[in-house]
Amino acid sequence: VxxxxxxxxxxxxxxQTIVSDLxxxxxxxxxxxxxGDEVKLRLxxxxxxxxxxxxxxxxxxxxxFLPNVEG
Length: 71
What we know:
Strand order of the largest sheet: 1-2-3-6-5-4
Structural class: mainly beta
């Protein structure tokens, strides 16, 4: 399954990305990232989730979701 989502980088920059390989732990996104980058994704029907880039190669990256912390 592939879906479009908004991606918000740590500096506040927002862009569109394609999300695939979605699971409870993370997903793959299209774009150029560095390992360790923190991002937020606005996923349809799910809402906003935080994540950290765990791998990046050739215009795609693996994002592991982080717990949402209230406060």
